[in-house]
Design the sequence.
């Protein structure tokens, strides 16, 4: 009965989710959105979100490492991000004796927190429009000269904004170079692991549940930012002290419900909203199908052998996750683009634009020119995909690639760690089978002009791709670490190694027949896109459509806002937006590695004693919301209308992923981890009450 009522309410509220039209907004101009945000429930001001004079929420959001987002949650530098973002750091600290991946890790006192050389947290000091400075003196010059002038101007701007400070800064184009922004960061470099759940919680559901709803993954990890005694960045030292952030998020455990306002503050990496129709055609009809097929070949093989050999499963778990992640995302993207008929819509729009542009010299040719450039780049772009996803996906060639960087100028016979690490997780018999399929697919699908003559000859000599690959694996010194060692000791002539030959033949082909054309046409497309986007802004204004533009994600700080909302994935089905511990327990399966939860969690469930974290007899785990997010938003804070932390973003549903090109308010949902589950696990599984006490929890 309760459920039926809930569904009725959801359906009623369904129309209200349409209010999220997507968008990843620039914090320094959030004033322009604040009216709309308030209309949708936001209770704070633009200055609370972004201010350079006084502390604001921007000071609590960081670039975690190179690709994720993190947020400050205590006055003592405690930071939250995703388990999958901190995974490789945790892996480095793990061994057979201390398997932190398997068992989790909880530092009970600060001295036990684990340092991570090379890991950084970047805090944004300010961002500013520097378009005029970047473009000074560029008028009347050709493309090459303009590039050089811009580069000089950018150096000057960076210098000006960082002079006398230890900040770093970067200038990035937005709207394809119609505008330029500078981003100034303070970089902290002593970042330590504080707590992580066991992988059976942090990666619960594995690849099966990745990009899926309903979801029950406890994808979180705690870190702490350390500083010198002056609270400024300092390299790792045991004398460093916890960083006192300018701002940190309070945690709300008051709960969430369908249609509540939510906001995500983080670092989405790349979207392509303004992509020309031919670009979408390339993705949907060429690139995605090719990449999906090539990755399917790899996954089929890995999944086949891992069943028979647990050692291979462990060695290939991380590789499989990496391969499968984008593989599943591309499938969702293609499905979404087809369903939305994005190409047809774009073509219709471009035709209308072209008519309008007919009388405007600046825009008159832009559509025709874009078509030409896309037809020119087409073959090269596809070869690039095959080169990366077929040839360079052969692990043996990755081993050569690593060796190529040290082998010729190394005087010692010792094999560097990076090369040994490669062999640690390498099974040539798996790679050999995959290599046969990948090379055959490349040679089948790619015109001869892009297949190195030497390779064609070798394959002919061997009689078939299969035989050629068998010979290669039988003789190459790069197949095992022992062979490589012996080769070095015996003074082998590596230039004659068949794997080196294959690697260099493809590289040379790529460098001479592909790279420079790709660069040339891409530069032309960028320049045309710049004109086209500017034209669209003018066109929409003249037509008074009221369309608001936002720049594509470029791995800079953005704000997305929407609401907690379920959705209808297909006819007659409604997905509720909140998952719970009951659903997690229903998925629990001791026989399935990805769904085998810790016994301790089973025991807690059997007592139903969740203490402080009990919500109607269960514990909420994950939730869906209609925020426009992308890769890089992993670890981003999900905030309520008062700017309190209600969750950590970690995924989208796979059927949402076309939102990198076209956002569909009815279908696109990001997936957040409910902060109450984070606290529950921290308390009941980690026994780390001191962390909970460190945070400010609004109940
Ligand atoms: N889909 C999420 C993202 O795109 C999580 C990826 C990591 N997890 C995995 N099972 N591969 O990054
Ligand atoms: N898991 C993704 C990340 O690591 C976020 C998912 C998405 O693409 O939205 O950034």
Sequence:
């Amino acid at each position: 009965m309760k459920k039926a009522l809930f569904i009725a309410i959801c359906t009623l509220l369904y129309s209200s989710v349409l209010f999220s039209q997507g968008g990843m907004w620039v914090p320094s101009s959030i004033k322009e959105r604040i009216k709309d945000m308030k209309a949708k429930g936001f209770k704070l001001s633009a200055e609370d979100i972004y201010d350079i004079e006084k502390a604001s929420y921007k000071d609590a959001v960081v670039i975690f490492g190179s690709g994720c987002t993190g947020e400050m949650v205590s006055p003592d530098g405690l930071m939250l991000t995703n388990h999958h973002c901190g995974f490789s750091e945790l892996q480095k600290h793990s061994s057979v004796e201390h398997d932190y991946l398997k068992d989790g890790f909880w530092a009970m006192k600060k001295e036990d927190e684990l340092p991570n050389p090379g890991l950084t947290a970047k805090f944004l000091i300010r961002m500013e429009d520097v378009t005029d400075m970047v473009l000074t003196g560029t008028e009347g010059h050709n493309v090459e000269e303009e590039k050089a002038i811009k580069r000089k101007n950018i150096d000057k701007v960076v210098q000006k904004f960082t002079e006398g400070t230890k900040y770093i800064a970067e200038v990035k184009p937005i709207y394809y170079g119609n505008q330029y922004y500078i981003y100034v960061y303070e970089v902290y470099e002593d970042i330590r692991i504080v707590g992580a759940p066991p992988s059976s919680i942090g990666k619960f559901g594995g690849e099966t549940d990745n990009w899926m709803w309903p979801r029950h993954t406890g994808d979180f990890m705690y870190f702490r930012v350390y500083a010198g005694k002056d609270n400024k960045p300092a390299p790792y030292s045991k004398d460093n002290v916890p960083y006192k952030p300018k701002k940190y998020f309070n945690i709300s455990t008051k709960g969430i419900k369908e249609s509540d306002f939510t906001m995500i503050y983080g670092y989405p990496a790349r979207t392509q909203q303004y992509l020309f129709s031919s670009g979408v055609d390339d993705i949907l009809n060429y690139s995605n199908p090719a990449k999906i097929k090539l990755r399917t070949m790899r996954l089929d093989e890995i999944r086949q052998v891992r069943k028979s050999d647990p050692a291979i499963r462990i060695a290939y778990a991380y590789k499989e996750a990496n391969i499968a992640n984008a593989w599943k995302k591309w499938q969702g993207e293609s499905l979404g683009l087809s369903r939305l008929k994005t190409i047809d819509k774009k073509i219709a729009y471009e035709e209308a634009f072209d008519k309008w542009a007919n009388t405007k010299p600046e825009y008159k040719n832009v559509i025709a020119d874009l078509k030409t450039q896309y037809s020119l780049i087409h073959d090269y772009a596809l070869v690039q995909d095959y080169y990366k996803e077929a040839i360079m996906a052969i692990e043996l060639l990755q081993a050569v690639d690593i060796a190529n960087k040290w082998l010729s100028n190394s005087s010692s016979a010792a094999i560097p760690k990076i090369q040994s690490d490669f062999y640690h997780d390498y099974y040539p018999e798996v790679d050999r089978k995959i290599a046969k399929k990948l090379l055959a697919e490349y040679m089948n699908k790619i015109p001869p002009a892009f297949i190195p003559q030497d390779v064609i000859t070798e394959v002919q000599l061997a009689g078939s791709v299969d035989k050629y690959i068998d010979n290669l694996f039988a003789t190459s010194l790069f197949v095992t670490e022992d062979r490589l060692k012996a080769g070095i000791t015996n003074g082998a002539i590596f230039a004659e190694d068949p794997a080196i030959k294959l690697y260099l033949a493809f590289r040379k082909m790529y460098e001479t027949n592909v790279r420079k054309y790709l660069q040339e046409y891409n530069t032309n497309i960028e320049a045309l896109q710049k004109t086209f986007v500017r034209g669209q802004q003018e066109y929409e204004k003249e037509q008074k459509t009221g369309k608001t533009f936002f720049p594509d994600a470029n791995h800079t700080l953005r704000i997305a806002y929407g609401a907690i909302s379920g959705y209808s994935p297909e006819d007659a089905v409604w997905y509720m937006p909140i998952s719970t511990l009951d659903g997690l327990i229903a998925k629990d399966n001791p026989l399935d590695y990805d769904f085998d939860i810790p016994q301790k969690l089973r025991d807690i469930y059997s007592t139903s004693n969740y203490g402080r974290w009990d919500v109607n007899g269960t514990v909420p785990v994950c939730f869906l919301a209609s925020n426009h997010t992308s890769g890089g938003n992993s670890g981003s804070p999900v905030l309520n209308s008062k700017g309190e932390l209600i969750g950590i973003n970690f995924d989208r549903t796979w059927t949402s992923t076309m939102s990198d090109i076209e956002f569909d308010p009815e279908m696109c949902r990001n997936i957040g981890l409910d902060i109450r589950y984070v606290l529950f696990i921290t308390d009941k599984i980690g026994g780390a009450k001191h962390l909970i006490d460190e945070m400010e929890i609004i109940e």
About this structure: The first strand starts at residue 61 and ends at 64. Residues 7-19 have pLDDT under 50 and may be disordered. The longest helix spans residues 498-542. The chain has 24 helices and 20 strands.
